[in-house]
Amino acid sequence: MGEHHHGPAKGLMRWVLTTNHKDIGTLYLWFSFAMFILGGSFAMIIRAELFQPGLQLVNPEFFNQMTTMHGLVMVFGAIMPAFVGLANWMIPLMIGAPDMALPRMNNLSFWILPFAFLTLASTLFMDGGAPNFGWTFYAPLSTTYAPPSVTIFIFAVHIMGASSIMGSINIIATVVNMRAPGMTYMKMPLFVWTWLITAFLLVAVMPVLAGAVTMMLMDIHFGTSFFSAAGGGDPVLFQHIFWFFGHPEVYIIILPGFGVVSQVIPAFSRKPLFGYASMVYATASIAFLSFIVWAHHMYTVGMPIAGELFFMYATMLIAVPTGVKVFNWITTMFKGSLTFETPMLFAIAFVFLFTVGGLSGIMLSLAPVDFQYHDSYFVVAHFHYTMVAGAIFSMSCAVYYWLPKWTGKMYNETMGKTHFWISFLGFNLTFFPQHFVGLAGMPRRIPDYALQFADFNMMSSIGAFIYGLSQLLFGFNIIRTIVAGKPAPEAKVWEGAQGLEWTVPSPAPYHTFSTPPEFKAEHH
Amino acid sequence: MYQRAKRLSQLALGPVLLLLSLVTTSAWAEEALPWRRPNQVNTTPGVTEVGHTIFGLHMMVFWLCVVIGLVVLAVMIYTIFAFRKSAGAKASQFHESTALEIAWTVVPFLILIVMAVPATNALIKVYDNTNPDLDILVTGYQWKWKYEYIDPQGNNVSFFSNLRTPQSEIRGEETKGEHYLIEVDEPVVIPVNKKVRFLVTGNDVIHSFWVPELAVKRDAIPGFINEVSARPTEIGVYRGQCAELCGRDHGFMPIVVNVVAENEYNDWLGKKKSEAAELKALMDKQFTLAELVERGKGVYDRACAACHGANGEGGVGKAIAKSPIATGAMAGHLDIIVHGKPGTAMQAFGAQLNEVDLAAVTTYQRNAFGNNMGDMAQPVDVYKVKKGQ
User: Fold this and answer.
1) Which of A73, A513, B222, B272 has the fewest beta carbons closer than 10 A?
2) How many Cβ atoms from other residues are within 10 Å of residue A155's Cβ?
3) What value of ipTM does the predicted structure carry?
4) Binning pLDDT at 50, 70 and 90, where does residue B33 land?
């Protein structure tokens, strides 16, 4: 290694040993795409079985493994690493830092992840099968009544948790210490803000998840009874601990998506983000509220009415900052000069579909009516409107937006728009009818259903296949861009784009901002 | 102009395709599936006053959300069309308005209060479990429900309620019946216009007792007894399902509630009580081998066949035919049937079947499927195993 080592090392070891934020970002992004395809293929199996009433393709044991693995792989393998990858790539570029603050830990936090998921995926081939108790793994189904693979699952969750905690500490350290001179907190790009807040949420709740799975491990192997009523324990305690992690977790998944959309909408509206300060405060309020609403997932466990009322009111409050965000995005577009390249299409669809998911969220927040919605397909529809249209659409949006910066090449716009429209169609066809079957009384997580649910389930399955196939087009477009894309015209790829990342050449050189850039405040 | 039309058609393409596919798939489904039933798209007001309150709240909030959603969508669509660059829009650079931002913080808050007040009142109604006319202890098992009618005199009546849909319908070998997957061998019967309090608990894992028409959903949690009440005002058959993932057959443990006139309910309860008395008498009887085998076949088909196969050939569970247990010592055979095998899917049937049925099914297993043991167990033998004698 010479003094003037500017480019990446050659061969495989470049990727194994790298401490470069761009390399690690790329690794995270490809890993998450692979997990997205894996988790998606589990979903295809689920929808294929639910295409018609009756058991056609899989037996109920395997079906339960698929619902569980689909949730785990999508949440922990696809969405979270995707946004960490985005943070790795973009945060140093956006704040004018040469790299992440803790580059070696950055390498470690990525490289333990593939092992976590190889271990988890290997349970599919174990005696007794993969985890089959749902991604929420309620005890005692996940302890006393679990297959032997639960121990492997606990191990994998610990590794993922360690990875997330390391990644978040790194992001916090980078954002706090390495901003370019002149970039005060209230001048940071909103994507950086949302990730800073997300990172604090992660550091706060991942240890809680680790605690929950450790208590399970003790119950299973060391004779404790944390969650076993027969030994004096409490199965409901598990749910309180799980959702104390789980509710902030859903904002961990969505907040970076809010950040992405807050970058993209101003760029294609050629107009500054409306209400920057209120966006920051809204994000912080959502993060704070996320800690005091967890039991709205548990309205039916038999809480006292005072508890129900507290969690109902607190949950309803979340609508206020979320509404502020939606209104701000729309007002950003208002009186702008709009163009509709693929990232903008995904951003607009995000705003509208997330609003739909948010409105069904308000319905679900009301405890008395939730007694009819709880654990039905209405909930499945609700959280896919927020998770898929929220996290996955914003992730697609981010990839199209920054791909020219990463690769120095333009993606194919027609193919991008085709991907968008097929995704949009497939997504709505999959999940909109699920509102209907849920309200009509179809419980979630069942491999077979009564006949009155047949039509909408068939639509849902057709939509899911369309949506699933469209993601292959997405992958193809990315690879085609890297291999054969037209060179990106200039550093600032999009006419209206703002921010330091657009001041470096396209593709971004291996090392950027070795000396801090001059940061001039743009409009906020 | 041509450019503009092309753009418009591109934008409109998605929604049009979405509508088309919704219409075509439903039309196709109608033709291809002769057993289809009408599609229900909404939740039900049900047959209780609480259910009507919940439904009213649901519809109110639903329409509020629809209006909000449509307003947001309308503003978005207007913005998208009015300010597109291709139509020559020049970007304004405003980026703040304190008045606007305060307005859309305060107005949603007020709307939330409009929702919270009736929601609180409804919740208080849902939580009123005072002065019930009848208590039923509902216990979730993997994968069936047990109902126990609490009698102040101590003469409780209890029974299990299993899925009645045969495997052949599930596997597609026979046409699916009208109530596919939402039918049981023994429904729970309650009188109309009486306040029934369900005391809900779980035996193994967490289940959830859900009957939409009674507006009842409560988790059945081991170690807890949750309470929830319903006063149905209409006679009828109401169907629900377990709502909490509880393992392999979570999708196959329905709930059927028969709401009947009070005299009909009393007759039914009387019959149940005399059946229990008959059973008590049977306990002391010495059965012949033939009697036990005959009774045992019925029990086997109901309780064992799903896992061990209709002909004892095995499946999820081990084969009974030529099994070392069914052809081994009687004590070991009775032990596994009564106490189950912890850590496996083999449950402890001692808690689920009565002594007569346990004796019969054990005898049947030892004398069917080519297991010609020729011996038999009497109810009193089972009783001794249960008591650990």
Assistant:
1) B272
2) 16
3) 0.92
4) very low
Residue boundaries of the structural domains of chain B: 1-38, 40-84+95-128, 134-280, 286-386
pLDDT digits (tens, 9 = 90+) for B227-241: 999 999 999 999 999
- Residue B92, Ramachandran bin (φ over 0: left; ψ between -120 and 50: alpha; else beta): beta
Structure tokens at A117: 């998921």
Report pLDDT for A322: 96
CA distance A9 to A5: 9
Q: Which fold has domain B286-386?
A: Cytochrome Bc1 Complex; Chain D, domain 2 (1.10.760)
Report the pLDDT value the prediction gives residue B285, as an integer from 0 to 100. 81
What pLDDT does B67 receive? 96
C-alpha to C-alpha distance for B311 and B300, rounded to whole angstroms: 10
Do the chains contact at A375 and B180, CB–CB below 8 Å? no
Evaluate whether the domain defined by B40-84+95-128 bears CATH number 2.40.110.10.
Answer: no
Active site residue A21: no
User: Measured in Å, how far apart are chain B's first and last C-alpha atoms?
Assistant: 94
The answer to whether B40-84+95-128 and B134-280 have equal CATH topology is no
Contacts of A4 (CB under 8 A, 6+ apart): none
Omega before residue A266 within 30° of 0, cis: no
What residues contact B142, with CB distance under 8 A and at least 6 apart? A145, B203, B204, B205, B246, B247, B248, B249, B347
User: Residue B235 is encoded by which pair of tokens?
Assistant: 């006679």
B84/A462 CB distance under 8 A: no
Domains with residue ranges and CATH for chain A: 30-503 (1.20.210.10)
* B192: closest CA of chain A, how far (Å): 22
Alpha-carbon distance of A305 to B127, in angstroms, equals 7
pLDDT digits (tens, 9 = 90+) for B51-110: 999 999 999 999 999 999 999 999 999 999 999 999 988 989 888 899 999 999 999 999
Average pLDDT, chain B: 87
Q: Do A338 and B79 touch (CB under 8 A)?
A: yes
Q: A277-317, pLDDT tens digit by residue?
A: 999 999 999 999 999 999 999 999 999 999 999 999 999 99
Residue A6 neighbours by CB distance under 10 Å: 9
| Shortest alpha-carbon distance between residue B197 and chain A (Å) | 14
The conformational region for residue A313 under phi > 0 = left, psi -120 to 50 = alpha, else beta, is alpha
Residue A247 bears catalytic tag: yes
Residue of B3, B19, B25, B226 to mutate for A, most A C-beta atoms under 10 A? B25
- Give the residue on A whose Cα is nearest the Cα of B242: A443
Q: Is the pLDDT of residue A356 over 60?
A: yes
Main-chain dihedrals φ then ψ at residue B226, nearest 5 degrees: -90, 150
> Which of residues 314 through 343 in chain A touch B, CB cutoff 8 A?
316-317, 319-320, 323-324, 326-328, 330-340
In order of A315, B184, B239, B343, B348, the CA distances from B204 in angstroms are 31, 21, 23, 12, 11
Residue A292: alpha-carbon gap to chain centroid: 21
Which A residues, 178 through 197, put their C-beta within 8 Å of a C-beta on chain B?
Answer: none
pTM of the entire structure?
A: 0.88
Domain range B134-280, CATH class: mainly beta
Residue type, A356: V
Q: Which helix (H) or strand (E) holds A249?
A: helix A235-269
Q: Cis before residue A507, ω within 30 degrees of 0? A: yes
When pLDDT is averaged across residues A457-486 and rounded to a whole number, the result is 96
Q: Quote the minimal CA–CA distance from B386 to chain A in Å.
A: 20
- The mean pLDDT value for B5-31 works out to 51
Within 8 A by CB and 6+ apart from A51, the residues are A457, A458, A461
For residue A86, is pLDDT > 50? yes
Task: Kindly determine whether residue A337 and residue B116, on different chains, have CB atoms separated by under 8 Å.
Answer: no
